[in-house]
Amino acid sequence: MLELRPYQKRVCQSVWEALESGENALLQGPTAMGKSCIVAAVSNKLINVLPSGRVLILVDREILVSQLRDSISRFYPGLSIGVICAGVSAKKQLDCQLTIASRQTIVNCLDEFAPVNLLILDEAHLVNPTREGKKLDQYGVIIERLKEYNDNMRLFGCSATPYRLNNGFIYGNKHHPADKPYFNNLTEKVTFAELTDNGFLCPLKGEISNNQIDLSSVAMVAGDYNLGQLSTVMGLHIDTIQEAIDIHAYNRNKIMVFCVDIKHAEKVATATGGVSYHSKLLKKERAGILTAFKKNQHRVICSVATLTTGFDDPGVDCIIMARPTKSPALFVQMVGRGLRINKGKEDCLLIDLTGNTKEHTPTNSLDNVHVTIPKGGGGEGEAPYKICPGLNNDDTQCLEEVHPKCCICPECGFRFETEIAAALPDTQTVNFSEPFIKKPAMMYSVLGMETTIHESAAGKKLLRIEFLLDTLEQYNTVSDWICLADEYSGYAVTMGIEKWGYYSDEQCPDETEAAFWLSKDFNQPNNLECTKTEKGYFEIEKRFFTKNVDVPNTPEMDLDEIPF
User: Fold this and answer.
1) Domains observed in the chain
2) C-beta atoms surrounding 274 within 10 Å
3) Which residue, 265, 401, 429, 549, shows the most beta carbons closer than 10 Å to its own?
4) CB environment 368-403: b (16+ within 10 A), e (fewer)
């Protein structure tokens, strides 16, 4: 009988409550969370509660079909489990209460498949959101057809990375404005920190590139690097990978290297004395390579994307990134291959030779990934924005919408890393288990306040409120920023309206110009509670007011410290 861990019980309860309330459920959780246990428990409960109920688990890869079938059969031997996957069984088992299917096979036999009460989506981030005028992908065809059979069908999605390159998050409103996601919110999240602290994941340590590789000659395709051109650039750094192994991974037992393409993987395998694993190998060859790697007959395995999901070898204790990517999901998936616990394994070492870590986890937390979201109407030329990964004073994630080239978040003061074009550089040691901690706040008297209209690097106007503080520090000013509806949208405007209420009893206008003129009657705070960034700049944490005070002007300040 399956015995769930405490966090798995919490997840199952939350998912069940969402499904009962009529909502689709979405779970975010990393590798080794025990997803198969959770899926099995939820499926078994539905079938027990509704004896005539049916569940379909939809997966993307054939190997996952076999893994799930074997796991669920072990957990609940009495369940009737069918398989619809050409690579696993020639016979389509259509009439079982619980069916595990590959999308590639079941999409061709939907006419023969009976309605289901629950559709479970493994790797839910692979599902394209619906968009008016856009053709449905295989997932969309399956979902819509099954909803025709049973319009009360619920979805339960699972993903370690519930966001998509060029789309944003697959739930809520942090996504391309034309998208219609299947999930209204994130039902439950199991974090890397929670699993690591409780001994279910091994700690992650890193040797992280200080500089970026010069990728100015590499074009962008569908939001990520052109793989052919990227392979040419990364091909210049083959020897660096072996050098990194010699210097940093000399005491590691099993090393996975993620490469750009097959040609790159084969070159790296030759240089490191390892083996390459890719889609052009015969099925029998691939199986033999994985078996040999698991038996420690190979120390280094070089892959492209084939092993980012569906492959689990707890013995892997080193991940080398030799593939730059703009995809935060791909980054997290690559890291996740090394986080399973194993006897004698103290931690996993990430050697990032690409700059991926600084781009996707600027706070060194896998639970705090930076996601860029498209913004604006349809067609070309849409202005993207990124979600700030910094932390607010209460340790909640900032989630401010800022321009991709923004260096400082106007909400929480987080400073984004700037790109440096360079060859493969020295590295710095990073402990991913260390939390991101702000320095203690201090109280400062306000000597003066000035409001101006600031124009960002993207050409958008916003209201800037600059305060002169009573301090002899090198930097003696701090700014507040108010984004309004004539230039911004979404969360940025919501926060702008909230901040407006601190300074004015008047209704917040939609236009920045109007806000500027009204700001002449702003209430000036007597004191500001501020923290300091590593570079010495102030950030506002709390504001303390005595209403109806005069607002003295201060000399015009230098705006260069906020380059957006």
Assistant:
1) 6-190 (3.40.50.300), 200-360 (3.40.50.300), 442-544 (no CATH)
2) 22
3) 265
4) bbbbbbbbeeeeeeeebbbbbbbbbeeeebbbbbbb
pTM for the model: 0.67
Phi, psi of 25 (to 5 degrees): -110, 140
Q: How far apart are CA 321 and CA 355, in angstroms?
A: 9
pLDDT at site 326: 87
Helix (H, G, I), strand (E, B) or coil at 328: helix
How far is residue 105's CA from residue 88's CA, in Å, rounded to a whole number? 11
Q: What is the pLDDT of residue 377?
A: 40
Helix-helix angle 262-272:238-248, to 10 degrees? 50
* Whole-number pLDDT of residue 207: 85
pLDDT value of residue 305: 81
Contact indicator for 448, 554 with CB cutoff of 8 Å: yes
Residue 253: partners with Cβ closer than 8 Å, 6 or more residues away: 296, 299, 315, 317
- Coil vs helix vs strand at 386: strand
Report which residue type is found at 232: T
The phi and psi torsions of 2 (rounded to 5 degrees) equal -70, 125
Of 324, 473, 458, nearest to 384 by C-alpha is 458
Count the alpha carbons within 13 Å of 367 in the hemisphere toward its beta carbon: 18
DSSP assignment of 222-237 equals: TTEE-HHHHHHHHGGG
Round to whole Å and give the CA distance between 480 and 452.
11
User: pLDDT at position 366, please?
Assistant: 86
Nearest to 58 by CA among 13, 108, 104, 92: 104
Residue 46: HSE in the Cβ half-sphere, 13 Å Cα cutoff: 26
- Residue 148: phi, psi to the nearest 5? -65, -40
In sequence order, which residues have a C-beta less than 8 Å from that of residue 113 and are 6 or more positions away? 56, 84, 94, 99, 106, 146
Q: Which of 345, 483, 461 is nearest to 410 (CA)?
A: 483
Q: What is the 3-state secondary structure (H, E, C) of 513-524?
A: HHHHHHHHHCCC
In this prediction, the residues of the chain whose per-residue pLDDT falls under 50 are 377-383, 418-425, 435-436, 548-564
